[in-house]
Write the structure tokens for this entry.
Amino acid sequence: MTFDQTVPLESAQRLGEDLARDAADEVDELTVPARLMAEPEEHEHGPFVGDDLDRQARGAVGEEGRSGRVLHENQRYQEVTHDFVTSCASNETSTRSGGVTMPRVVVFNEFGGPDVMHIVEEPVVEPAAGEVRVRIEAFAVNPLDQMMRSGTSPATIPLPHARLGVEGTGVVDALGPEVTGLMVGDPVILTAIPDASVRGSYAEYTTVPASRILARPAGFTITEAAAIWVAYSTAYGALVEKARMRPGDHVLITAASGGVGRAAMQIANQIGAVPIAITRHTANKDDLIAAGAAAVIATDHVDVVEAVRHYTGGTGADIVLDVVMGPGQQDLLKAARPGGTLVAAGFLDPRPTPFPASTSLTIFSYRSFEHTLDTVVVNRMAAFLNAGVRLGALRPVIDKVFALDDVVEAHRHLEKGLHAGKIVVEV
């Protein structure tokens, strides 16, 4: 079992390929196989495509886009938007003339509910220097994906034709120039896709910098490998790198039934800390105890502050991991001991979070890309996770598995908020 880090390489500038003229002689349908990508914001990396291509993309489609015919009910749904042929999720395999299968990608052209997602047919993109192309076998569905799709993400998402997916697993399909230490066919996991709206993992293929993949842990199923990185790197980064969690620390974990919450409990136990789980439902108590919680606080039954004082002998929690935010954070601040630490690492509650009043706590706002784009920290994460996997202490819990054709249903399942563990889509 290994999480060995590959040789880090700088991401080179991606050049847009205009393949439409070549494809026009071969197919009858209107297609533009190349992805016109706008430069993502907020993350430090080299440009993938400059403003000129973005203007070309927007100029080609206009303000409202062009639409072709739509076939409803049991017929094949087909719509030409942004010069791409899109199809609804179906069991049919889309082909170009000559029977060559076109790989599929999940995209959305407007913000909204799960139904805004569609499956698009596109040729594979050749990896640039320092990049690899991965044939995706499965990807996990994360709250960040829901936020991007609905338009509530803190980062700007360029439309139309935005992609989704920040983690997944698959096999190396092609190597770009200057890539070493990898071979075609190597099973890998994707560790960080900061520009998910451009090259997200909701696809049959994607290209990523070689420094953004790790060897897939031996002994893991494909669904487990798809679900491990975001949850465990977030929990590790927040608790170990930020809060400096130590053996014996009482660690209060919100949304404990979710992927990050379960990962946090396992990581706390691996270090020797004492995880105290918070859940909204008393019915989850037995499951969370079995998952590794030393104690469970069900907010539909008990007061959080009083319960934490009870389980910590009156002192309060040493560390609070808050992946929910919102007004409820005020109770978490009261439940922490004087001089304790609160790490805010999520946005599950869309309501505003009141600014903390005068407090003796150390409060961190944590985003996983803060560490997952840092090769040195990723090496530490990989070593820690490798040890946990080898000892059997770390293992992702899978709630439900969907097929790619059912990706809309996977998002509906996520929005219900009743899942226990990770939601995975197999490609």
